[in-house]
Amino acid sequence: MKLSLDLASQSKQVWLDAVMADFDSFLQDHADCERKASSMAMSFVAKYPDRTEIIPELIETGIEELEHFQQVYQLMASRGIPLNHSIPEDLYVKRLIQHCHSGKLERFMDRLLVASVVETRGAERFKMVADNLEDPELKKFYKMLWTSEAKHGHIFVKMALNYFDKTTVYDRLEWWVHQEAEVLDSLEIKAALH
């Protein structure tokens, strides 16, 4: 059973250059993304309380993402970087969600697979950041995040396989990685995770 996925495109050097040129803004966006990731995991618990097979992992993921937010916040505080007053709209996630099925069961699977793709993209980008940082503590931090996000990408595929057959999940996942690549290519490059 394959739980990992291969992205249909790789992040571009121009994205990494933008992040490295304005790392403070990247940290602010990263903090926002961790808050949203925690909320997303917990929203699954709220929307699907009958899906008891996945609730423990969803709660664990929500807590882990909140801990990541705490760690990013502490890093920001040590550098005198404030949190954003409001979390800006994430066009990347919004455009992905627009491609979700509207039927209740199909949408449930799509939302799990979107979460998988988003976490996998985050892992890829955190690895790029870690590989290009010179500060040993920051490098270690982003390496830890890279492995954590990769694990989350796997978790959401595994969750989907609790409820849908392998062929359905993997066919739809393949479709999603191509949608994600198109969405990513359509976005403005900025010092942000997405």
Describe this structure in words.
This protein has one domain (13-186): Ferritin, core subunit, four-helix bundle (Ferritin). α2 (23-47) packs antiparallel against α3 and α5 (104-132) crosses α7. By secondary structure, the protein is mostly helical. The protein starts with 12 loop residues before the first helix and ends in an 8-residue tail after the last helix. It contains seven helices and no strands.
| CATH C-level category | Mainly Alpha
**CA gyration radius, whole angstroms:** 16 Å
The assigned CATH architecture is: Up-down Bundle
Helix content: over 70%
How many beta-strand segments?
0
Number of helices: 7
Order of helices and strands, N to C? HHHHHHH
The averaged pLDDT comes out at 94
How large is the share of residues in beta strands?
under 5%
Sequence stretches where pLDDT stays below 50 over 5 or more residues: none
Structural domains: how many = 1
Provide the CATH topology: Ferritin
Helix/strand structural class:
mainly alpha
The major β-sheet equals: none
Fourth-level CATH superfamily:
Ferritin, core subunit, four-helix bundle
User: Alpha-carbon distance between the termini?
Assistant: 29 Å
Query: What form results from the Cα inertia axes?
Result: globular
State the gist of this model.
By secondary structure, the protein is mainly α.
Throw out a few tags for this protein:
194 residues; single chain; 7 helices; Ferritin; 73% helix; mainly alpha; globular
Element layout with pairings:
Elements: H1 13-21, H2 23-47, H3 55-78, H4 91-97, H5 104-132, H6 136-161, H7 166-186
Helix pairs in contact: 2-3, 5-6, 5-7
